Amino acid sequence: MAETLVKKFVVTRFDPDKDEAPRTESYEVPCHPDWKVLDALNHIKDEIDGSLAHRWSCRMSVCGSCGMNVNGQPTLTCKKAVSDLPDTVEVTPLANFPVVRDLVVELDGFMEKLKSVKPWIIRAKEKAVEEGPMRQSQAELEEFKQFSMCINCMLCYAACPVVANEPEFLGPAAIALGHRYSVDSRDEGAAERNEIFRGEGTVFACSYANECSEVCPKHVDPAAAVNQAKFNAVIDWAAGLVLPRGGKE
Amino acid sequence: MADAHPHAMAPTRPGKTRTAPPQRPPQFPMGGRYLAYTAFGWTGLIYLLLGFLVIEAVWALGDGAAAWQEQLLRYEHPVYIAFHVLALASVVFVGVRFFRLFPKAQPPRIGPAKPPPQSLIHGTLYAVWVGATVVFGAILAGGLF
C-alpha cells in the first residue's frame, strides 16, 4: 500500500455571521499520493471540520466548480495533485471575487457580465425548420471551437490584474464567450456585441497581461479572444465611419 | 494579500449575504509572471521621459548650431547614456511583447479575407523591425543621404 503524505493545509475561513474579516485555519491532512487538492479538502470536511464550505461537483475538470487559489495560483483543485505541492499548502478563495463563505466566492457579478455580451446565436430572421439545418463547415467550426471550450471556472478572472482595478471590465471569460458567437458563421449579432465591447466594460481595458491564458485549464486562450474582439470592434467602428448608413444593412 | 477594488466582480445589486471584500492576485505586482506585466507598465514612464528629451532636442535645434552642439555634448554624459540604454531595452521588451500578441490577435477573418499563418506574421514583424533598424542605423551613420 502506498505511503500517505502528511501535508499542512492552511485554508481561508470566513463566516459572514461571525467573522469581521477572513482568517486562516490549519489542518494536518494524511494524503494518499494520488490525491488531488480537492480530495484533501473533502477529507477536511468529512473527517476534521464539517463546517468548511467549498464548491465542487464533477471531479474531472469539466464542471469548473472547484476553482481556488492554491499556493497563490488559480487552480482547479480537482486537477492539482497534492504530491506536486510542498509540505504546506495554502488554499484561498479565488482572487478578485467577493467571498460568500470560506472558499466559496460570489459569482453573480460574472453572470451579469456574461449575460450582457449576449452569449447566444442572434439571427435577424429565424430560419424556418422546413428550410433544414444551418450547415457549417469544419473550417467555420474551427474558428470558434477553442473559445467554446470555456467551462466558466473563473480562474482567468482570479488571475487578471485588470479585473482587480476596474469593476466594469467584462473580463476574459465573458469576452471570450461573446466573441465565440461573433465568429460563429450562424450568428448575425457581431455588430451588437461590438457595441457592447466598445461600451462601459470595454475590451480595451485589457492591457495584455496574458495571465488569463496562462491559467486557463482548458487552453481556451481568452487573451487571444479579447484581442481579436478588440480588432473586430475597431474594424466595425471604422467601417461605421466610412460606409453608407454606418455599414448597417 | 491586498484588497482589490471593493466592487470587483460584485453584482450590481448586493445579495442578502454579507461578503468579504475581493483580494488581489497574491503575487501581484512583483511576483511570478506579474513582474513582466508590471515592468511593461513602468516602460510608460521611460517613454514619457524620452518624450521630454525629444522636446528638449527640438528646442536646442531651434536655438541654433551652438545650442545643438552643446546638446550633443550633453548626450555624452554617463547618465544620458545609461538612460538611452534603458530606453533601448524598454523598446525591445515592449516590441517583443507586442510581437508575441499580434499574431494571435488577428481575427479569424476580415470580410472574406483570412489572415496569413501566425508564423508568417511573426516572421514579417521581426523582418520589418530588423530592416527598419538597419535603414535608420545607416542614416544615422551617414551611410544613406
> What is the spatial order of strands in the main beta sheet of chain A?
2-1-5-3-4
**What is the residue-mean pLDDT of chain A, rounded to a whole number?**
94
Q: Largest interface, by Cβ-Cβ below 8 angstroms: which chains and how many residues each? A: A-B, 52 and 39 residues
**Biggest β-sheet description of chain B:** none
- The oligomeric status of these chains comes to heterodimer
Question: What key phrases describe this protein's structure?
Answer:
heterodimer; A: alpha+beta; Ubiquitin-like (UB roll); Fumarate Reductase Iron-sulfur Protein, Chain B, domain 2; 2 domains; elongated; B: 145 residues; mainly alpha; 4 helices; extended
Sequence-ordered SSE layout with sheet pairings:
The complex is a heterodimer of chains A (249) and B (145).
Chain A: E1 5-13, E2 23-31, H1 37-48, E3 67-70, E4 73-76, E5 88-92, E6 99-101, E7 104-105, H2 108-116, H3 138-145, H4 155-159, H5 161-165, H6 172-182, H7 190-198, H8 211-215, H9 222-242
Parallel strand pairs in A: 1-5
Antiparallel strand pairs in A: 1-2, 3-4, 3-5, 6-7
Helix pairs in contact in A: 2-6, 6-7, 6-9, 7-9
Chain B: H1 34-62, H2 65-74, H3 78-104, H4 118-140
Q: How does this model look, in words?
A:
The complex is a heterodimer of chains A (249) and B (145). Chain A is α+β, with helices and mostly antiparallel strands and 249 residues long. Chain A folds into 2 domains: 5-105, Beta-grasp domain (Ubiquitin-like (UB roll)), CATH 3.10.20; 108-247, Fumarate Reductase Iron-sulfur Protein, Chain B, domain 2. Chain A has 9 helices and 7 strands, in the order E-E-H-E-E-E-E-E-H-H-H-H-H-H-H-H. In chain A, strands 2-1-5-3-4 form a 5-stranded mixed sheet. A two-stranded antiparallel sheet of chain A has the order 6-7. Chain A is elongated. Chain A starts with a strand and ends in a 7-residue tail after the last helix. Chain B starts with 33 loop residues before the first helix and ends in a 5-residue tail after the last helix. Chain B has 2 domains: 23-105, no CATH class; 107-145. Chains A and B meet through strand 6, helix 2, helix 4, helix 5 and helix 9 of A and helix 1 and helix 3 of B.
